[in-house]
Amino acid sequence: MLTVNRLSIRHFAVDNARALSAATDLYDSMTKDDFLSREPDGTDLDCIIATASINLSERQVSELESLLVVDEHNLSARLKLLGYYFKFLGHRVNACKRQKHVIWMIDHRPADFICGTPRLAWDGRLPDLQQEALEHWLRQVDLNPADPAILGNAAYHVGFCDLSLAESLYQRAAVLQPDNEHWRHQLAWIETMK
Questions:
Q1: What is the pLDDT of residue 35?
Q2: Domain CATH for 24
Q3: Domain annotation covers residue 161
Q4: CA-to-CA distance for 128 and 193, rounded, in angstroms?
Q5: Burial of 132 (0-12, 13-18, 19+ CB in 10 A)
Q6: Do the domain assignments include residue 140?
Q7: pLDDT in tens, 96-148
Q8: How far is CA 90 from CA 93, 95, 99, in A?
Q9: In the structure, what pLDDT confidence band is assigned to residue 161 with cuts at 50, 70 and 90?
Q10: What is the pTM of this model?
Q11: CA 40, CA 180: separation in Å to the nearest integer?
Q12: Which helix (H) or strand (E) holds 107?
């Protein structure tokens, strides 16, 4: 059984700040409605769509879930639901609802920026959901061994339970993208956790 390592909270906080600070300048020129109406594109701005959706109403959530029944590839609806369900970490019923969106993102959009952020992080209090997500990440690593974004996103999540595997994945990403400072920062963070 997997467990969350004792320093996962710090890992979570560091990358959440990274995701949010990446788009800070845009807050000055865009309203919340601007973010919610923009089309997702796999970049850091998708995190804002999710973050801005945390306080959706039950009616809005139901409508978004209905949209996904018609079109499972409606990324805008999925990101909004991920943002909404994020506040329910640790609550079994809503965590299970969230999990289906997490798994869909891992299976269909594993290289997207948001997939390497806390929005897709698992809750260590629910080890069965953690194990399921881990299995999907490891499958993506096997299917995409030369994609540094997927290796890095997988490493981020694997790092919650297996620092040595996360280190290996970040090292592979760094070999593929030697000029990407993010991989070096993540490797340095792992060194501090040992």
A1: 59
A2: 1.25.40
A3: yes
A4: 25
A5: middle
A6: yes
A7: 899 999 999 999 999 999 999 988 887 777 888 889 999 999 999 999 999 99
A8: 9, 7, 12
A9: confident
A10: 0.81
A11: 23
A12: helix 92-108
Instruction: Look up residue 11 and give its two tokens.
Output: 């890992």
| Within-domain flag for 163 | yes
Q: Which two tokens stand for residue 175?
A: 């070999």
Do residues 77 and 56 lie in contact, with contact meaning Cβ atoms separated by under 8 Å? Answer: no
**What is the token pair recorded at 90?**
């640790």
* Residues 47/119, Cβ–Cβ less than 8 Å: yes
Residue 54 lies in domain: 8-193
Residue 90, φ and ψ in degrees, nearest 5: 95, -15
Q: Count of domains in the chain?
A: 1
User: At residue 146, what is the residue type?
Assistant: A
Token pair of 47 as six digits: 């995190």
Considering the domain boundaries, does residue 167 fall inside one? yes
Contact 74, 68 (CB under 8 A): yes
